[in-house]
Design goal:
13 strands, disordered C terminus, Rossmann fold, six-stranded parallel β-sheet, disordered N terminus, seven-stranded parallel β-sheet, about 450 residues, alpha/beta, single chain, 16 helices
Length: about 450
Amino acid sequence: MENSNTNNEEKKQNDDLHKTHLSDTKFKDLPLLPEIQLAIDETVFEFCTPIQAKTLPISLEGRDIAGQAQTGTGKTAAFVIAAMQHLLKNPRPNLSQRNQCQVRYLILAPTRELAIQIAKDTDTLGKHTGLKFALAYGGTGYDKQQKEIEQGVDILIGTPGRIIDYWKKKVFSLDQCQGVVLDEADRMLDLGFIKDIRFLLRRLPDPTKRLSMMFSATLSHRVMELSYEHMNQPERVEIKAEAVNTKKIAQSVYYPSNDEKIPLLVGLIQKLKPSRAIVFVNTKRNAETIDDFLRGNDIQAVLISGDVRQNKRQSLLKEFSDGKHQVLIATDVAARGLHIDDVSHVFNFDLPQIAEDYVHRIGRTARAGASGEAHSFACEDTAFYLPEIEEYIGMAIPMASVTAELLAQDLKPRKRITRDRVPHRPSNNGKKPGHKFSGKPRSGGGYKGKNPRNKPAN
C-alpha cells in the first residue's frame, strides 16, 4: 500500500512537471538521426521543453534561428542537437583534401563556465556520433587546449577571446565552417564582445552556406541587428521568461538599510536553512565581506569572482555541486552559464543594475521545472533599480518586512582568510616597480632640449 502511494505521488510530480515545464512534443517524433536519438534515450529525456519544441523543427530543416529563452530552459540541447544533425547529414567537405585543423561548427559563449557546461552537454548528446569536440577558454590550459584543437575538431566551443587568439596563430581555420551558435548573445554584447563576435563571423563562409543559431534572454534591437547582419533570414522564436518566474519561483524583496544587509542575509540563511543557495553581489568587495561573515558564523560558503584562478573556480564549483558547501557567493561573471542542480534559494544581496540580469540570477533556481525562492535586498544603494526590474518581468515583487526575528541576533565577527587570486598584469611593461616604461616617443612636436627645470640657478 505504501509503495502504491509513493508511485502515485511520483506520477503526480511528473505530471505537474510536464504541465509546467515540458511541451507535448516528444524527441522521438522529430526526424533525428539514430545516433542522436540513442543518446537522448540514455539521458531519459522523452518530451521537449518549449524552446526545443519550437526551434528543433526549424533548425533540423537547416533554417537559421534567433531564439529568446532564459537559462535553464533546455536551449543548450536545442542548438547542440541541431548542430550535430547538420554535420552528420552534411559530411565533411573535401574530405580527401581537408586539413585536420578545419573547424566545422563554432559555438560561442560569453563566460568560461557556460562554455564548459555546453561542452559537457555536447559530450553527453554526441557520444555516439563519432564527432570530435574541443573547448577553448581563457585563464588556464593554453597549450593543452591548443593541442586538442590541432588534433582535429568538428565542433569548437569557447569564449571569443581565446578562440580569436588560436585563429590568429593559425591553429585552425574557419574556411569550411558549416555553422555557428551565439549563446547568451545579449550577455556577450553587454560584456563588450561585439567586435570579437563580428571578427569571427566575418571569417566564416557566407550565411547562406551555413546553419546559424542565436539564443538570448532578450531579443533586443542590438541582438536582432547582429542576426540580420550575419544570419540568413533567421526565424524568430520567443519563450517568455515571465511565466517561468511567476509560476515556479517565490519572489520577495526586502528594504534593509546598508547596515542591516549582512545580519539579514545571515538570519535568513539560518532561518530558511537552504540546502543549496547562491548569493549574488555587484562587487567583489561585497562578495569577500559576505564570505568572511558567513565563515565567521559557521555557514559553509565558497566565493567565485573574476580574479579567482580558473582551476580554483572549477574546483570550488564542483565542491558546491557535490554538496560540500551550503552557499555559493558569485559576482555577475557567474550569473550565466552555471548549471547546478537543486539550488533551492537565490539571494540578491545587491539588486542587479541591468533588469535582464535579475532574470538570469533567479533562473539559477527552479530549473527543470522545480520550484525555488528568490530573496532580493533593495538597499539604499540599489533600490532605484527595482522599478525597471519589475517592469521587465511584468509584475510587482511582493514586499517582505525586515523584522527583528529575521536579523541575526548574535552575529559573530567576520573571519578573514588569505585569498588566492590571479596576479594582475604589471602596468609598466614587466619592468621592476618604479621603472618607467621606455617605449616609442610620442609623435609630434614638444620640447626636445634639456629640461629647463634642471637648469642651475644663476
